[in-house]
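Here is a tokenized protein:
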Amino acid sequence: MSITSGRGWLLAVLAVAVIGAGVVIEAQKPVSPAPPPVAFDRYHSPQEANAALITINKANPAATALHRIATSPGGIDLTVLEIGPDVGKKIRKRPAMFVVANMEGVLPLSSEAALSLADRVLADASATKSLTWFILPNGNPDAATRYFRKPLIADERNASKWNDDMDDQVDEDGPDDLDGNGLVTEMRVKDPAGEWMSVEGEPRLMRKADPAKGEKGVYKLYSEGTDNDGDGDYNEDGPGGANIGITFPHLFHPWTATGGRWPGSEPETFGIMKFAIDHPEIAMTFAFGATNMCLQPPAGGRQGSFDATAIKIPEQMASRFGADPGRTYTMKEIVELIRPLAPPGFEITEGIVASFLGLGAVVNPMDEDLKFYKELSDKYKEFLKAGKLDGKRLDPPQPKDGSFELWSYYHLGVPTFTMDLWTLPEVKSDEKEKTGITPESLEAMTSDAFVALGETKIAAFLKEVGAPDSIKPAMLLEGVKSGKMTPKQMAGMLKQMPKPKDTTGADPKQKALLAFSDKELQGKGYVNWTPYKHPTLGDVELGGMVPFADTTPPASMVKTLLDGQVPWVLKLAERLPRLSILKSDVQPKGAGIYAVTVWVENAGYLPFPTAMGKKNLHVPPAVVTLATKDNLKGVTFLSGKKRTTINAIDGGRSVKLEWLVQAPAVPGFEVVLESANAGVDVKFMNLAGGPGGAK
């Protein structure tokens, strides 16, 4: 597979990663005895999930294959199950879906969803008729194993060694189960310098004191444990290194406690990225995990390194483009300036311009892509409603910087979706709506309509959404009036902000967990505060949220949740771009000259490629080739080329290609359509009088 120079940096990162981690990528052969089939009545460890994949492969050897793409620092294989008609073939003609799960390692339900999807794909012949499936049930198996161990602790880090406190020891001071209840919760200790206090009316919950309201903190909070290394800090250097869910290149944050040494530094991350790059047939990615891009379209509002509406061209370049270095240009204006200077056949894109001018990475989803995300989100909500799974629930978070889903969308350029499967039911608030404004209604609002709201109503809205005090109504009004900001941009920024606390100060998630625990878990989701004599802190209280209780529903709910949501992935797969030769025609013009016309259509719903794919140029163009049995011997192209590229076709649209050829002794042409991830097609045209049949 050839890699463009624009992606060379990624291969360099991968090369460093594989040398540093010592990872070997190879096909995995089933060697252990086949376990019984998976029953979705409990959660399965990463080892059990891998064993289930072996069982599936043994039962379906012709239709499936296993790929061990990495081994975690804890010694657990990351195994991808391949299902489809291209198994074992060197040349792959069909597009593929790449499905990953549990990148965070603390969401066992997501791994169950991946196994459930594998079952459904194998049971539905239509799902693999023209599509390959790659399914990875555990992207972060080291962290995932903690759900199946005692004491129970939710920790997203893998088993790599990491010196969090930068002393002369590694992983020496982690949390401890002091009271022996099998759970690692929290400790609260009364301290004059404490920042925390009990929530009024619900002493089990804690909140930070607000000095602006004259409140004084009572407690300091720690995770449950002791100061094992005697440095005065508690649980600051526990076992584990990196959270695989934030170790991918896009918006990667260096020098963090859980992000790894560099993008792709972990064997798990490296293996996943290499597998995706080695399989250009991947047309869509899907992640079962913490976010839900099926329910909520990806939000904009990230502050990028440049403003695409106000770009200054450096003076040394401006003269070459006929531009004014003293003014600003939009990205589209610069593309139009440069386009006439490009050599024939070279397409100038916004991505090329951004790279050429050194403007930085794209950080917000493309408007053209948001259209299909929003339409599919509406359809997904209808799907949930039909399955009676549309109850009020806490909003899932947006994807984290450095996540698989951001890397997949922004770097691979393919449609990327996620599903979180379950969040805590929403607790009804006693506070009534004051403004009726939401980030969604703000997004659709015109600038004039926003200005008409006035400072008072805007101030009330900012309070409702928990905006920082530094954001003032007058500042927003001035920004909108001057054209520096639009309501749509404002809505994107608000969606990125954490949800506000409720009127009592309790964190909405903790409040929802407490309600769910009391109602559905017989109180087992929350540990009441209990006195404990700590060896160094003295009198403390142990209690708080039970690990995993806020993300992992009881096993009795698993099958219902999977049956009601996993089938949506199959429906998304039906919407992939599908390129084919719609029609072909040949007309004799005399003297052995023929006019050849071919129409290529995208019969799918989604565009080929996405707008992001057009920008980053990762998805290769489709290629239409005219060929003959004797390799075009005696054929002269008077117009057009032997190989013609198609850079883009929107869903449900077609493009027309034309050639004028001189072929006095050729009986016909074979028209070959090839694309890396949108299908192939072949037709034969008889020069004696029109198109032939499909070959």
Residues 1-36, 689-695 have pLDDT under 50 and may be disordered. Residues 466 and 500 are 4 Å apart (CA to CA). The longest strand covers residues 579-590. The chain has five domains: 5-149+243-301+366-423+555-573, 186-239+504-545, 311-357, 439-496, 579-694.
